[in-house]
Specification:
- The chain is mainly alpha-helical.
- The chain has one domain.
- It is built from four helices and no strands.
């Protein structure tokens, strides 16, 4: 059985990776969207359990180092849809209905 020895290069790479991970963790903890993300998770858990859903404060658009703000509208929409199941049917109706309506209106002009 052969064992790979870790030289100084391996240790320095490990330290560099650890420092990078610590920097990312620090950025995540100090991110302005962290509180809202945790609140949205609590909302999902409450909705799945059939409990009263606590309100969340919506964080205004801010430049954050991790880019969490880019997917927050999708997270808010998903949480809303989980709280209001009829929203899925409306979304399917809109996705299918709008192209059909546009095609009908465009075909009627000929």
């Amino acid at each position: 059985m052969s064992y790979k020895r870790i030289g100084l290069g391996g240790v320095s790479d490990l330290i560099a990776t650890g420092n990078a991970a610590a920097g990312i963790a620090a950025s995540a903890l100090t991110n302005p969207y962290t509180a809202e993300v945790l609140c949205r998770v609590k909302q999902l858990q409450a909705a799945k359990a059939g409990q009263v859903v606590p309100p969340c404060v919506t964080t205004p658009p801010i430049n954050d180092p991790l880019g969490v703000g880019k997917f927050m509208p999708a997270v808010r929409g998903y949480v809303y849809a989980e709280q209001h199941p009829w929203a899925y049917a409306v979304a399917v109706g809109v996705v299918l209905g709008v192209p059909f309506l546009l095609g009908y209106l465009a075909g009627g002009r000929r």
